[in-house]
Amino acid sequence: MFSRRTPAPHELNRLALALAARTRPFLDLTATNPTSVALRSGEADLFDGARSGRDARVLAALADARGLVYTPDPKGILSARTAVSNYYAAVHGALVPPDQIVLAASSSEAYGWLFKLAGDPGDVVLVPAPSYPLLDALAELESLTLHRYALASEDGFAVHAAAVEAEVRRAEAAGHRVAAVVLVNPNNPTGTSLAGAELSTLFALAKERGFAVISDEVFVDFRYSDRPGDVRIAASAPGAEEALVFSLGGLSKSAALPQLKLSWIFANGPAGLLDDALERLEWIADAYLSVSTPVQLALPKLLEHARGTLDAIWARVLHNERALRARFPEGGPVTVLPVPAGWAACLRVPAVRPEEDLVLDLLESHDVLVQPGYFFDFPFEAFLVVSLLPAPEVFREGISRVARCLGVPG
Ligand SMILES: Cc1ncc(COP(=O)(O)O)c(C=O)c1O
After folding, report:
1. Domain that holds residue 389
2. Mutation test of ligand 1: which of 107, 134, 184 has the most ligand atoms closer than 8 Å to its C-beta?
3. How many CB atoms lie within 10 A of CB 270?
4. Which atom of ligand 1 is nearest to the CA of 187?
């Protein structure tokens, strides 16, 4: 009756069951929805309903009367693609022709389209571990086989081209075709990236072995420290015009507007191959036409006005990270991994009991919710992942409860 791509309704895991049964309130240190964490810019509450200037600007941008008429363009209307091109130039110094941009409703949808473009059922897509857990479902929905390449745990979970290459060769030796390699750049939740010469090495391998590189850059505007020679936008990096490389971005992070559902794909590659890819991608997009006209018309203004919101998020993340480091100082039983980018922090905690038991204890006895490392495929226990977005008072109290549960004095 049903396809094998959709899972049978299965029993909830212990954490989900505990959450479903909860009646007492708890502090949520997993909150990553920027519209529900009471962001403030100075004294002005950016998310305080229609009173805030920011909200008024978003609503005004969406009220363009041209949005009453439907004249779809599968790749996205030109003014919207030009706005993305201007964003790349202004924020990242990358020159991106609007012709090489395709709009989608979300990064998840963009992944789906690129998986359809690059892979046939059974082909392999390589993804990093630890990383963003949704990739399993997105690959499965396209009937692709998901293999993982490991980030270097001994090196702060750095992304290395050699680890990707080893997995490509392993998959090929087992008779698989590798259709695509996914970079999450910066990675969620470790904040680490593949950059510089290693990126060029990966592009050379992609060209030689014939796979596409998909670089998920939704957190690219949230980089707090860079390595020298870092390249932020993979599809504009040296060598990208030799392979087929797709950079993904979107409003959900770059303007903190996940509810508006607009993302983009920036494609690069050798002329013939790139033209072919763009034509096929346009054909896929034409089957959906999923991005609404009002949000496309609003895009230039939404991106233009995003800076204040991004500044508020930067301030929030850096503030909460400082509080976290103060509560878990270096040399103690809990190690806070560096946060080079993104909205999350990873804590290495003593592996004296399974992560799931610890997370359940935190919820049930301390009324605080965090994520266990295994959700993100950390290679060993024990890690906890916390969002750095919650309001500072919630965050401070939440991590104090985590510290008390772990017996960290303070
Ligand atoms: C690394 C990464 N990619 C993509 C997404 C999804 O973004 P979108 O809302 O555009 O689908 C997320 C969401 O948190 C994410 O963490």
Report:
1. 14-52+307-405
2. 107
3. 13
4. 1
Q: pLDDT digits over 239-250, tens only?
A: 999 999 999 999
Cβ–ligand 1 distance for 108 under 6 Å, the answer: yes
Q: How far is the CA of 108 from the centre of ligand 1 (A)?
A: 7
Residues 272 and 317 in one domain: no
What tens digit of pLDDT does each residue of 92-145 get?
A: 999 999 999 999 999 999 999 999 999 999 999 999 999 999 999 999 999 999
| Ligand 1 touching residue 296 (CB < 6 A) | no
Letter string b/e over residues 146-182, b meaning 16 or more CB atoms within 10 A of that residue's CB: ebbbbbeeeeebbbbbebbbebbeebeeeeebbbbbb
CATH code for the domain of 384 = 3.90.1150.10
Q: Are residues 211 and 188 in the same domain?
A: yes
Does ligand 1 lie within 6 Å of residue 188's CB atom?
A: yes
Angle at 216 between CA 271 and CA 174, to 5 degrees: 80
Domain's final residue, options 256, 281, 304:
304
Same domain, 123 and 188: yes
What residues contact 36, with CB distance under 8 A and at least 6 apart?
A: none
Q: Among 233, 330, 283, 5, which residue's Cα sits nearest to residue 117?
A: 283
Q: How confident is the model at residue 369 (pLDDT cuts 50, 70, 90)?
A: very high
Q: Give how many domains the chain has, as a whole number.
A: 2
